Amino acid sequence: MTRERTDVVYGADPFKGDQYSRPWCILNDEQYPFHGDQFLVVPLTTKNWYDGLVPIPERAWINGGTPEPSNLVPWTVHTLDEADIEFWQGTLEASLVDQVTSTLTSYLAGRSD
Question: From the Swiss-Prot or TrEMBL record, what is one GO molecular function term (predicted)?
Fold first, then answer.
């Protein structure tokens, strides 16, 4: 299966250990080095008490979804290998993924927008 920017996939969570998986949103497109083999991702979380989380409104799901309301975590970036993806979970609106990417970019550039 071809993975695309805005896809949410379920896969390995290296922050919790080898036995754990979680949903991830793909940020990169085909211009990213190793696209198809490796993806730049941010996690989804059901936690809501951190400042700066990006809520995922139900209407932002083009396909699929999550069983509970979820948020994107723009400051937790990971590269996920295709081999570590268990299944496709859905697709989000591009504007929401653009918002997360913009927030991440501002963090990396050392500025607040």
Answer: DNA binding
Q: Are 79 and 41 in contact (CB under 8 A)?
A: yes
Q: Is residue 27 domain-resident?
A: yes
Give CA–CA dist 37/65, Å, rounded.
24
Structural domains counted in the chain? 1
pLDDT band at residue 36 under the 50/70/90 scheme: confident
Question: d(Cα 109, Cα 39) in Å, to the nearest integer?
Answer: 21
Whether the full predicted model's pTM is greater than 0.70, yes or no, is yes
